[in-house]
Amino acid sequence: MKNIAITVLVLVIVTIGVLLAVCFQVRDTEAALVTRLGKPERTITKAGLNVRWPAPIERVHKFDTRMRIYEAAIAETTTKGAIPIIMHTFVIWQVEDPLRFYNAVQTVDQAENKLYSLIQDTQNKVVGQHEFLEFVNSNPEKTRFNQIEDEMLQNLGAAASQNYGINIKAVGIKQLKVNEDTTKAVFERMKAERNRKTEAILSEGNAMATAIKSDADTKKQKLLAAVEGRAKAIRGAGDAEAAKYYEQLNEDPEFAMFLREIEALKKALEKRATIVISADSEPFRLLKAMPELEPKK
What we know:
With 297 residues, the chain is α+β, with helices and mostly antiparallel strands. The chain has helices at residues 2-22, 98-104, 108-127, 145-164, 180-251, 253-268; strands at residues 23-26, 30-36, 39-44, 48-51, 58-64, 68-71, 75-78, 84-95, 166-177. The chain is built from 6 helices and 9 strands. The strands form 3 sheets. Strands 6, 7, 8 and 9 form a 4-stranded antiparallel sheet that branches.
């Protein structure tokens, strides 16, 4: 009985050892590459239990596929106008192709060394296509950070995937600096630009003021001409009316004065009103008796 128990225990141990030698598990956060006698045999990207030939026939190389952040060292590059800037760039990456990753770099440290070189090349290429004012500008709408980061992502992602089996998820500019000489030059350039804008605005304002003044002068002349014409017409009508009275006055002065008094009395009494005045006052004496007037022949 004792011998049977020992035999069963040995069989269990052997079985467990065989299973450990030929079985392996791939987690959700991993990818695996199986090599046979040192040569790549197959890649496994799905989580689960798998089998292999025991070592040294087949070996399993596992890679963590979770996203990593790599911050490149601060480096200087130049913009399109040959203005130097200092950039601190970071990338978010993960293992995409276990076979290509294994053949090219094998370890995370080696992968990040390759990424550093790629980042430097990408910075020099992409930044050199953009003006300095697209990085530093008093007007936020003229900066192109998002566009520049997208261009760097496209350039860096293609090279990393093709050469090293690395998937670049994002590229960002963490910090941007300029040296003292560049800062002075930039501020002088910005100052000159603002002065040009100020002069342009003042020039435009002066032109508008001149146009408004000219328009006002033209309207003034037209109004004065119209008023003067109206005044001449009124004076002419008054002169014509006066000429009639002068003519009547010359022909029959007493009758002309009588007509003027009748006209004045008509105007005074055209509205209902109470007037207290001497009956002998002109022209109200006409209410007492009509004068004896005979038109002159």
